[in-house]
Amino acid sequence: MDITKKQREIRNLIHHELKTPLVPILGYCEMLLNPKFGQLSADQKEAVEEIYSNVSQLEKLLDDILARDREKQLGEDFQILPKEVRTPLVPILGYCEMLLNPKFGQLNADQKEAINEIHQNSVQANNLINDFWNAQKLENGEMKYYFEDIGVDDFISQEMENLGPLTVQKKIEFTKSIQPKLTIKVDRAKLAEVFANLVENAAAFVTETGGKIQITGKSQDGFVQFSVVDNGPGIPKDGVENLFKKFYQLDTSHTRKHGGSGLGLTICRGYVEGMNGKIWAESEEGKGATLSFTIPKTDKTK
């Protein structure tokens, strides 16, 4: 069976989304290697050349993947993101940290700005790859979970502290309303990622002035029901119905406008279902949005 039209569309999407942060990295590397913008030490020059080489390798790999799609019959063996795509990016963040360390040589303002841009785009590319990779593992039923009992109130307090800088930056009123003495058995890291995605999604849409986000948690029929409530512009009816749709149905309109892979909410759905819960959205245009999910309670919950 030939590669399907949908599979090809997904490959093209990944190719485009991953290349978006890679192109400026190459440009900044070329700038840094140009003596016109300042001299580099031997170690600094070698690090920049390694970054350039790794990003060029990743670009070629992405092009080769598309070329193979045109030539091979992939069918059910189709892998949305081969493992080797992750390899070239691994050292780049380390090189950026090294370049910014005065121990390896001084930098002028333009050089520092260029390296910070390389770092920022590398983080973006790495996050995109992780999103695509996790979505693929969820789609294939390969995701692993490590469950533990956690107290809900303490967990939410910690996550709000972690996410605080995001809301402070936009001057968002960030509050919680959590029923006391709730305990759940979850994969802590994945639950934290769910909340990060939901809060980041809400923060992307609330206004710069007067924006509000609240996390709530309450006992509900053997589960703890969590909600992330915002006072943003709301979601159209068709958007609510499709908000958590599967990876193969990905719509990138949100991605284009607000950045990211557009897979965050799809991954949230996969994680919540993998922890034996359900996730849904409620909204009316102009009246904000409430994204809710459930997680089973433990016997320790009062």
Chain-wise SSE layout:
Elements: H1 5-32, H2 42-71, H3 92-99, H4 109-139, E1 147-151, H5 152-169, E2 173-178, E3 183-187, H6 188-205, E4 212-220, E5 223-230, H7 237-242, H8 253-258, H9 264-274, E6 279-283, E7 289-296
Parallel strand pairs: 2-4
Antiparallel strand pairs: 1-3, 4-5, 5-7, 6-7
Helix pairs in contact: 1-2, 1-4, 2-3, 3-4, 4-9, 5-6, 6-9
Q: What would your notes on this structure say?
A:
By secondary structure, the protein is α+β, with helices and mostly antiparallel strands. It has 2 domains: 135 residues, Up-down Bundle (Four Helix Bundle (Hemerythrin (Met), subunit A)), CATH 1.20.120; 150 residues, Heat Shock Protein 90 (2-Layer Sandwich), CATH 3.30.565.10. Helix content is 52%, strand content 15%. The protein contains 9 helices and 7 strands. The strands form 2 sheets. Strands 2-4-5-7-6 form a 5-stranded mixed beta sheet. It has a two-stranded antiparallel sheet with strand order 1-3. A hairpin with a 2-residue loop joins strand 4 and strand 5. The longest helix is centred in the middle third of the chain and has 31 residues. About 6% of the residues have low confidence.
Helices and strands, in order, run as HHHHEHEEHEEHHHEE
Portion in beta strands: 15-25%
Helix content: 40-55%
Query: What's the story with the biggest beta sheet?
Result: 5 strands, mixed
Rounded mean pLDDT score: 84
Q: Give the name of the CATH superfamily of the largest domain.
A: Histidine kinase-like ATPase, C-terminal domain
How far apart the termini lie comes to: 55 Å
Structural class: alpha+beta
